[in-house]
Amino acid sequence: MEQELKNKIDQACHTAEEFTKLYYESVDKRRHLMSRYYLDTGVLVWNGNGTVGKELIQKFFEGLPPSEHTLTSLDSQPVLDVAVANQLTFLILACGFVKFQDKVSRPFQQNFTVTAQGDKWKIVTDCFRLQEPVRL
Questions:
Q1: pLDDT in tens, the chain (136 residues)
Q2: For the chain, which end, N or C, has fewer CB atoms within 10 Å of the first or last residue's CB respectively?
Q3: Do 123 and 38 contact (CB within 8 A), yes or no?
Q4: To which H or E segment does residue 15 belong?
């Protein structure tokens, strides 16, 4: 059991590295392909604004200004089989900096829930947030 969990954690980390490399290259250079990363019923929450369905998510990405993402931290873990009906699913957390057009780089964090669909990973949920100081 312990070895099985370790194998899933290793697979989650390897998947996170490969997936985020492709994802951020597409966001920055091939936005017209973004819908292929999402389930038909995928959910995107971007700075508190939600969009459901890969066609609307595609339209959202096409409306963003040009960007350049740099990752500084990446982590991933498997989601327990009992929580996802034995569907291979990982939670990925990415942090880094993003620069829109010629503006200053800003810190961001993003988390994805991805699930296996054939030999591809599809985003179930995607939550992106620019990091800003909390004002109390």
A1: 688 888 888 888 999 999 999 999 999 999 999 999 999 999 999 999 999 999 999 999 999 999 999 999 999 999 876 656 677 889 999 999 999 987 889 999 999 999 998 889 999 999 999 988 777 7
A2: C
A3: yes
A4: helix 2-29
What is the pLDDT, as a whole number, of residue 88? 85
User: Are the beta carbons of 106 and 98 closer than 8 angstroms?
Assistant: yes
Residue 25: in which H helix or E strand, if any? Answer: helix 2-29
Q: Which helix (H) or strand (E) holds 6?
A: helix 2-29
**Cβ contacts of 27 within 8 Å, gap of 6 or more:** 34, 61, 67, 69
Instruction: Return phi, psi of residue 45, to 5°.
Output: -120, 115
- Interacting residues of 108 by C-beta distance below 8 A, sequence separation 6+: 69, 95, 96, 97, 98, 128, 129, 130, 131
Q: Which of these, 10, 21, 26, 5, lies nearest to 96 by C-alpha position?
A: 21
Tokens of 27: 């966001």
